[in-house]
Amino acid sequence: MTPDDEPTLLECVGSDILDEVDFFMREYGADVSLYDHAQAQRDKHFSSLLPKTSQDNPDWTEEQVVAAGMRHLLSGEELLWCGISRRIANDDPAELARSASLYARLELWWGTRDECNNYLNFSHDMLRALSAGDTYVIQKFAAIVPNLAQEGAWDSRVLHNGVIAAINRDDAQLAMAIEESSRWSKPKKYLSCFYTALTGLLNRDATLVAEGISSFLKASRKLHQDEKILKAISLEAHGIYELCRWYSPELIVAFDHTQGLPWDRQLCEWVASSTDEQPFHDVTSLSPTLQRWLVELPIYDRLRHDWE
Q1: Which of 13, 31, 111, 229 has CB atoms 3.0–4.6 Å from 17's, for a disulfide?
Q2: Rounded Cα–Cα distance for residues 264 and 233 (Å)
């Protein structure tokens, strides 16, 4: 089959996913571009949002207040839902990659600790960032948070520990994370698959990496019970793949990256061919200050009213 004969994702997904795409088109603005939707939200909500943001942060400049307001309007899982919907409807893998990267940068940059001084756990968001090849934001995040997660469910903490150890290229810490994961008597299937891939990474075993990612893909449909749209394309599986590829391209040679959903071959190929491009949506037209923050990632701490 030639690329011209290959069916689009819109022709490959089931009716349940098509219904989800249609829903997010109608209800969440996925039928227009990210920029048009954000501008409409800005016109609707800024008159009430900005005064409160300014009052809560009296030391901020007007540009910072606008950036924080736009960050509030853009962030949240809706950005992923619409990114996947646009990817499927418009057959555009770049849309999904940039949405995943923007989503993760908005989430990880905005806060590392809660009001109780506990570091927040963003294990799944780290894999979503990696699905877009955005290793920079994870490296910035890993330099600040503890190697061992302090908060969250046990499976999320174990997932965090593995990602941080791998992104830090710390084999000793990775071995400890793998050993800790093995102590769970009834681990969730996706977590076992994740650590199979990381064991392959630690041992430089491409076959084991491929086994882990392939098994994760089979288990991924049970990972998101609430939102069917997140089952259409496994961003977490792509994140594991990109983490291993970043660590060493030789680690992914045994994996079949041409397979079908929930693996997105075109997304994988776009990320591999776009290493010199900005991985996230450029939001300069919405807020130049927010764009600068997203590029520089001066990690914001919710316990302080400034940026590190």
Answers
A1: 13
A2: 6
